[in-house]
Amino acid sequence: xxxTIATKPIEGQKPGTSGLRKKVPVFQAEHxxxxxxxxxxxxxxxxxxxxxxxxGDGRYYNRxxxxxxxxxxxxxxxxxxxxxxxxxxxxxxxxxxxxxxxAFGGIVLSASHNPGGPHGDFGIKxxxxxxxxxxxxxxxxxxxxxxxxxxxxxxxxxxxxxETIGTSKVLDCTIEVIxxxxxxxxxxxxxxxxxxxxxxxxxxxxxxxxxxxxVTGPYAHQILEGALGAxxxxxxxxxxxxxxxGHHPDPNLVHAKHIYDLAMGANAPDFCAASxxxxxxxxxxxxxxxxTPSDSVxxxxxxxxxxxxxxxxxxxxxxxxxxxxxxDRVAAKMGINSYETPTGWKFFGNLLDAGLATICGEESxxxxxxxxxxxxxxxxxLLWLNILAVRKQSVADIVREHWATYGRNYYSRHDYEEVExxxxxxxxxxxxxxxxxxxxxxxxxxxxxxxxxxxxxxxVDGSDSAHQGIRILFTDGSRIxxxxxxxxxxxATLRVYIERYxxxxxxxxxxxQGALSDLIALADELAQIKxxxxxxxxxxxx
Length: 542
Ligand code: VG1
Ligand code: CO
Prior knowledge:
binds cobalt (II) ion; binds alpha-D-glucose-1-phosphate-6-vanadate
């Protein structure tokens, strides 16, 4: 039986960089989930009888939400629902399932790298039929609907058993509980030379992969230790936990410091990596050398042809605006196009669908390709392994060679987390007001070539996205970028991105913060960060 239940609009259900993200208690409020999910379906057309994929990163409130989504989707007329066993599917694997099954779309339940648990974060995101995060046109329509919604439809049915692989029915809708790892592994086997990687491990190559008690554990166990023969114990924290063991499942130098320390210590493995809560981010550290995500996307693009899936070369490279220009240099040398998009994977979708870009990346540890429409943490790890297996050099040697060829883009991001929204907004406004007067000004050796508030014109669908971050570009190629996070759930988070290009190979081994110190000081001076945020120092430096 379908029940139609009266409801009232709920304030503040505006999807951010990556869907709707709030604290768990917010989602637990009466009809909150129901309202948002019904608003998603109300904003879509033509899904009667079609397939919906549902997956989540396994965090607290995942199961309860999945039961609701299944019942609402069935009541709204979906014909078939695919859901991973236990309701746990990584974000890139959801993207793959949507594509492989010709699904109408999918729902991803995740707050990615944010902490979980009863007081942690939760999130809901809609992905379209191409497997990627819904474009702004759809998220705007969803948001508009949340402001006028007055009823939702839900099946009056018992909960679906998510623990057993098999098929059942809710109303006329077929629910299939599936093995979420199998299809993903098959895709990876098509893209990468598993024989070569197996031989690399057999030769004594050692690695550690930290799944951070999040979604990639089962994938990493099965692919790295199973199919590729890495020794038992290669995967750390490989069991997904609803609260990620109380940690932030954020693979950066702060929250994955233990793996950094391992890579820098005596007896370091050849290769260390980690992924985030929902499996779409990656951290790459070679013995003694951390690879910045911006360098990683450039390196992967330059070497992708060494993997079977990219043997014919790549069509183009896309990076988010704050990501360093290292990838642009690779594209220029290869004679292919590079694209600069706003932050958030949804902006890569059109470029990938149109075949304009093959490899995409973000400075926030997101790298991916046209194999799915999400960034993909394990994919990045496997491409690195494929490259290492072919080149038979250390990570550090490969990175240094890359710098010698292209120059090095020193890069760092300084985050000021959970500052007061008022101060953060005032800081951005003050910067916007000073853009015109900054042009041509000199600060010591640095001269401002241009300053703007980044706006993007999508070359495929012609849509425009304004106010995507303040850019201050210097004549020597250095940049300072400021933007406010669209994924935080408390107050505002200011992100300051700092970059400097160094062509001289003799200066490629400087300590990063030191190499950027004049820009870091200038970033504070121009935006008056300390005054506006009332903070003396960043919360996180990556
Ligand atoms: C952050 C990152 C951005 C990334 C987004 C989602 O957004 O900066 O690059 O796409 O998180 O990543 P923001 O608006 O907080 O800067 V994830 O791993 O949540 O799907
Ligand atoms: Co993520």
